[in-house]
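Predict the assembly for these two chains.
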Amino acid sequence: MQTETKERALSVIYYVGGVLMVLAVCELIPLATSLFCRETRFVFVFLAAASIMISFAAFLMLIGAGYRNVHLSFGEGMTVASVSWLMGTLLCALPYYFSGNYLSYLDCCFDVMSGLTTTGLSMIQNLDHLSNGLNMWRFLLTYIGGQGMVVLALTFVTKNAGNVYMMYVGEAKDERLRPGAVSTARAIWKISILYLIIGWIAMSIAGILAGLPWGNAILHGLWIFMSGWSTGGFAPMSQNILYYHSMIYELATVVFFTIGSFNFALHYAVLSGNRKEMRKNIEIVSFTVTLTLLSLIAAFALMHDHVYPNMAALFRKGFYQLISGHTTTGFMSLYARQIYHDWGDLAIYAMILAMLFGGSACSTAGGFKGLRIGIIFNTIRAEIRQYTIPQSRVITTKIHHIRDIVLTDSMIRSAFSIVVLYLITFSVGTVIGMAAGYSGVESAFESASVTGNVGLSIGVTAPSNPAFLKITYIIIMWLARLEFVSVLTLIAQICRRLVKR
Amino acid sequence: MKQMTKYKALFLLITMILNVFICFMPVSAKEKQADKTVGLTELVEHAKQYDDKEISFKGEAIGDVLYRGSNAWINVSDGNNSAIGVYMPAQTAKKISVMGHYGARGDVILVTGIFHRDCADHGGDMDIHADQVQILSKGYRVSAETPRWLVYLSGVSVLCAVLICAFALFITRRYDITKKNFHNHDNAKRVD
């Protein structure tokens, strides 16, 4: 029994090593960028970081190589996902640390976790003078994290499809686009790369129209697309989207981050010819309803307080921040402190709700997710209807998501549980923010942003934050991105081992 | 003793004359403007106070010149990890020769113009419409030195990576350890 446990642990180590190896190989892309742009210092930065990571990953894979075909249980698959994210964060922070653009290793880890979880909050120093190589690494991390780094890695590392599926679920993606887990993961990457080509071209054209020289238009186009599609929120300049001073550029980002926040299963259905799905899908309906309601609330609040001089400004500042928050992207077209000083409580409340609601399940977005909001709304509606009809009649609740689905108790319980966990995490983040000395509004806004993996800021997140606040935010980003289950499974397994001893 | 008092009185008189002279001494135009400059944090935190008023803002021109017809946007950073957009005639923007980016410090400019908290002409952007742009110092190239420790570290770590990978490949191919354990395990063949 003990031998089997050891074998399984070694198998987990092998897969974690596999994930780290693929991430290390990805560092060759910023290395090539630095070489191309003649950024000598960063060539050495990436050489050192990549080889340290490769050595460590190879060591882990060597230890567990004999057990790679062991079939992992659900809990072990979850453990691979959660541990890979944690170890990946610690090791992917090396280039940041060697670059000298961060005040501490904790800040580097914060930025890596923020990138991988597609949050977009940052602790970086002197962003406006950052090398192209390091910028490429920031956006690559966001892009990989958005689609799912464990799945990307394991489609290359293993042929054991059963194990891949466990880890795929562990990374908070449970839709099967195709019958097998590996083919599903490949389909996700095909969709993302298709949009990458379209989006890169479109954003480059938007950049040229905004006045960027063509070289930077192409680079910024690639980075902003990667960040927008992954609902990340990083930008290459410190002013974020405000840097471009262009409505065309802002509109182009809205298109791509909105599409990026949709379910991969929906993309797959639409690209396979099922266009009707766009109208009928529960997540699209849910997103449209919540976005419309929250936009109306925010617009009313901002117009009532005469915050913006005209409708164009209301759209580019009010609506842009709201949809950026709702899709959990985090692109900003104003300064963080402007939200605190200029927007009233009602508009900020609408923003907090938008960030918590989030995008779609099995997408790059965070938050509660449209599918769960749809399930909860339909359940409540069915409950109310149940009171109005004879007790002998039972109402079955249906939703449409790719196909018609009759809601079962387990689906409803799962939706409620995850939403409650999000709310608890949001509350804990708010309380810790207040303990760090920020006001209730500031703490709640920032906590909602971290919990929803959004990246909008009201001005709380800064390198001067106390370490306990940074660590809290790192943990929340990790928990929320993996939708609690895999991290809680890991904690439960550790606790069980400790109790047994 | 009397002579000492005389010297003290003379010293006091000279000091007083000097003080009066310093107080009424005309200040150069450059120093006057420097006193009036406002930082970005101050502008964002107290935007209403400065809204639609003339201000002076000093900072480094960063990124790219974004030309829009006969006008242009220049983003200016005052060094506090953010920048503000300055809208100016394209002819004025062309005077700025170096823009700050990796490997270069941009021209330090002094902008005098009207500050807008939410500019009606530019979709609510917080910006400055420049009336005057003065180049205080020219930008320059910054050579990013590669520290020796980084060169040594990358050399050693590349060597380690090559050795470990070679060893791992040798072990796995030579002994076929996967196959051996694969047969020992009951659950091994379950795949979806």
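Chain B has two domains: 37-141, 148-184. The radius of gyration of chain B is 32 Å.
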